[in-house]
Each structure stands twice: as structure tokens, then as C-alpha cells.
Amino acid sequence: MTRLARPSRRVSLAGLLTAALLATPLIATTTPAAAQPQAASTPALIPKPVSQQALDGQDFTLKPWSIVGVASSAKESRAARKVADQLTAQLRRSTGYPLPVIPLVPGVADVKLSTNGPASLGAEGYQLRVDRSAVSVTAATPEGLYRGVTTLRQLLPAKADAARRQTGPWRVAGTTIADSPRYGYRGAMLDVSRHFFSVTEVKRYIDLISLYKLNKLHLHLSDDQGWRIQVDSWPRLTTYGGSLEVNGTPGGSYTKADFAEIVRYAADHYLTVIPEIDTPGHTNAALASYADLNCDGVAPPLYTGTDVGFSSLCVGKDITYSFLDDVFREVAQQAPGDVIHLGGDEAHSTPHSDYLTFVPKAAALVTKQHKRVMGWQEIAETPLPAGSIAQYWGTDDARSQELARKAAAQGAQVVMSPANRAYLDMKYDDSTPYGQDWAGLVDVKTAYDWNPSTLVPDLPESAVAGVEAPIWTETLDDLDKLEYMAFPRLPGVAELGWSQASALDWTAYKDRLGAQGSRWDILSVNFYRAPEINWR
Ligand code: ACM
After folding, report:
1. Among the atoms of ligand 1, which is closest to the Cα of residue 282?
2. d(Cα 113, Cα 201) in Å, to the nearest integer?
3. Does residue 346's CB lie within 6 angstroms of at least one atom of ligand 1?
4. With bands split at pLDDT 50, 70 and 90, how would you rate the model's confidence at 38?
5. For ligand 1, is residue 345 a contact (CB within 6 Å)?
6. Domains (ranges, CATH) in the chain?
7. Is the pTM of this model over 0.85?
């Protein structure tokens, strides 16, 4: 199954320019105001930008002869050009216009994309202006340009995201926007262990989460039910340990080529892949694959149920560390980001003293690969290397809050994934057909209505790196179910990560969220039409 839009056929630049020039009227004509369709209203953006003003009477209309100009330093030209190509590839599909991309010539281009903005915009910040004459997106980096173009896509009519040609007009309301993120870490986690998701399915998830300016894709690659990433030095991890999934259906795993394709696709959407190898618990798939990894030397059978907390690596055996050394080395080679997640959660079958011995040793094997350590909140019980990140997954309970503070007290950063708010696998209400409810029911408001910097009492605001919305897949075996659980809640967590605390307001957000429905219909997103939202 592939539901990704097919890339359009390549058209030569010369052909596009000719088409654009032929379509350009030699004498500009002004349509009388009375003949103009009603002015476009300023669309509701998610995440809400830092500032946005309407420019009344300054609507821009994309035309068959519109030209896209790109300005950048020589060093950034390929990346900036790629952002322009991604935008125009989609707009050519939906508008049918040629939309040639050229080096920016002031006065010629109708859509101006620049990475020559001031450094004060930051890595992800941008300015966007829409007026009668042009649309301009200005950033200091290709990443900032990408974020700005993401906003532009939401300013265009929803049908601009269609896979096939639609009829215009392609009006964009006049506006000026200045924008940059609140947090540097804005993630989504996908559990590909409990149920395996193909490269095509992961790409689809990337397409959808990147619409809301997330910048981290955390992949939960190993657990009791399956090992999903190729490790050449321990091949049975995937050939045997990856063969099944929950309920005993065939599983799967990513070859090195597959994983490289995911990493590349994520990078094209300005998402860094954070690979997670969960240790010392959640390891039955590895223990089943290699008897020597078990304290008693006996490999357990593969596991296809949904219990947690019954498996553990053997903390006292040397082979445990030569195994992890190999695994982290090969995973580090496959994931170019600066973070490896070593899990560390729910190690209920690891004696506590062993856990305290294990985590620093595993962490040292991660830093040996020149990567920062990330782990679930429990790792804060042990000394952590500089630059570590602890992931809070509490439910407002005192112990989880204490672990977050312990992480901060030793200089680690904290990523907020409160299970009773940000876990996208929790049911919306009692009638949700799948998902879990151990952390509570999480309706759309609950997922949105919290502040990452003040959720944990006495956690210094400076320790909070951002937010992440995990989706665990014990009960989710296909993409339709993933989409149903992630949408409409994921955009709310994304807004918590991007928008200023002062912008967060449920009543206003709810209205902006309703406007996303038409976009999801066009993108065939199987979203839950939460009854409290006015979908349009
Ligand atoms: C977790 O939900 N066990 C991190």
C-alpha cells in the first residue's frame, strides 16, 4: 500500500521558464476591485506563530506564470533549493502551474525564499510576508526556511495539498508573520516494535508530523516483541528477534538501506531520527535471539503478548556490554543525529542495585560513540554523562516528578511526555475502539491544556528541553489506527512545543484546530472527529 503522492515528472527548467514567460501578460492589467472574489480570510495556523498581523486588502494570488526565486549563500544553496523544490513539487500537483524555481531576482519572483536573513532569526525562525505583489519567506538557515514554508502551506487553500489538479483561485491573505520556536526539542515517538511499520508507513507519519513543525522522530526500535534494526554483528536480532509482533503476526525489520531511507526522508523534512534501543528491560526479543545474553544461558521463546517488566539483560555478564558496544556502534553509524536513546524504563526484572550498575555502563557505551544519552525518566536515579536527556513519562505522580527534578539537579535536560496528556495511544474516551487507558482517558483538550515548563513543580524552566508525543502500538496494527490516535491530538502537543506560553489558550486553539479538518480530508488522514471540535 502506498498513499504517498507520486512525485511529478521532471520538467526542464528551460521548458518551465518558456511556459512562464509565455503566460506572463506583457502589459499588467489590474482587475477592478468589484470583480475580485471576496478577500481571503487569514487562516488559523497551528502552531500559532509568535506574531501575526493581517495586511488588509493585500491578498496575493498565485498565478499560472508565478515564479519562485531562491536566495542563499553558496554553502546553503542546495538545501535552500531543495526546500523550494519540495514546495513547488506539491503546488505543481495541485495547481497545475509550472512554477519555475530560479535564483532570486528582485522584482521578478512572485514567491521569494531566502536564507540570507539575519542570524537573530535563529536556526528555526523565519519571517513571512504576503502582500499583493509577492510572498516572501526569509530565514537565516535552510531549516528556518523550511519552517516558514510549512507556514506558507497552511496559509494556502487546503486544496493546495491535494495530490491531483484542483481549480483555483490560489489566494493567500495578506499578512506579516515573525516566528520562532519556544523549545528546541519537539518530538514524536513511534513504537515500531510492538507492531512493525514499513518504511512507506513511517514516511507517511513523517509527512504528517512535519506539517506541525516537529523536529525529532524518536523510533522505539527494540522491545520484548521485536527487534527492528539491522545489526550485522548480531544478525539473529532481526532474522529471528524481529520475525513476529504482538498477536503473533509476521513482524519485520529495517535493513541498513531501509533505515538510511528513513533517516534521509526525515532529514528532508527537518526531523532528526532518535533511535531507541530499550535496555535493560524490554529486551525479550534480544534474549530470545541469543541464549548467551541470558543469566541462565537459556533463550526464552519469542513473546507476542503485551505484558511489560518481565525481561532483563544480564547485568553481571561481560557479554552484555560487548553486545551493547556492538549495537550502539552500528546504530550510531546508521543515525547521524547526536542522540541515542537507551530506554531504561520499567526494568522491573532487573534488581535495583543491578539497574544502578547497568545504566552508567550502558551510558558510557553511548558516549563512546560521541552521542548524547537519552533515556526514560528512571535513568535519573543513576549518574548521567554531561549532555544527557531524561524523558518524563509520569502521570502527575510524586515519584516521576522527583525523577525529573533529579535529572535536572545533575544537569540533564528533561523532555516532557506526560503519559496522561501526551501519550497518543491513550483512548480519547470510553468508546475509543483501540488504545489503552492505564494513564487515563486523554481527550483533545487534556492533550493540549498544559504547560511543559510548569507541569512538574520545582523543575527549573531552563531544564525543560521540550515535548514529545509518543505513540505505543500494542493495540495499533496499522496506519489508519495510528492516524486516528495521533490526529487531532498531535498538533496540540506540537503547538505546546513551538508556541509561546502566552499564546496557549484552549478556546482559541480549538477553533484553529477545527480548520485543520479540511486539510486532513484532502490528505486522507483518518482523524478522529472529536465531537467537541467544530470541524470545517
Ligand atoms: C513507558 O511508557 N514505559 C516509557
Report:
1. 3
2. 30
3. yes
4. low
5. yes
6. 40-179 (3.30.379.10), 185-504+514-522 (3.20.20.80)
7. yes
